[in-house]
Amino acid sequence: MAIDPQVSQISVNPPSELMEKILERIERGRIHQLWFRLILSLSGAVLSLGYVLFNWAQIQLELQQSSFFSLLKLVSSDSDILLANIKSYLLGLLESVPVDLVLFLGILLFSILCLISFLASARRVHVFHVKHGEAHS
After folding, report:
1. Where are the extended beta strands (E) located within the chain?
2. Contact indicator for 112, 39 with CB cutoff of 8 Å
3. What is the pLDDT of residues 42-82, one digit of tens each?
4. Which of 10, 31, 6, 28 is nearest to 122 (CA)?
């Protein structure tokens, strides 16, 4: 079987700029993803802080009415009794935490973790940065 002369002239090697275009597209996608994560984490932090400001009076009232802080003070005064009844103490402490405070701290903590993750990823965003004439490993 004979090979067509036109087919034998076709280059099987990709164009030299193809690798650079692919890596630039990957970098643009990573930058886009990082901006999305930054906006999402900052909006979560702002919303949780806004929630606290909007419900500050309610949160203060719940903190005053809960026995959470009085149970925490028992650690310094009656630590030997607490160690003997640690399970009951921890369950009572958990039951006395105000729900609004838990929601605020949970959302704020999640937003801060997302922001830290964003900052760590932002430092690595130029991994695919390509200069002309450099070899890739």
Report:
1. none
2. no
3. 887 888 788 878 888 887 888 788 777 777 777 777 777 77
4. 31
Please tell me whether residue 132 adopts helix, strand or coil conformation.
coil
Q: CA-based angle 60:63:69, to the nearest 5?
A: 140
Residue closest to 55 by CA, chosen among 94, 107, 115, 113: 107
Name the residue type at position 111. S
Residues found in the chain: 137
Tens digits of residue pLDDT in 77-129: 777 777 788 888 788 888 888 887 788 888 888 888 877 887 777 777 654 44
Whether 58 contacts 97, CB under 8 Å: no
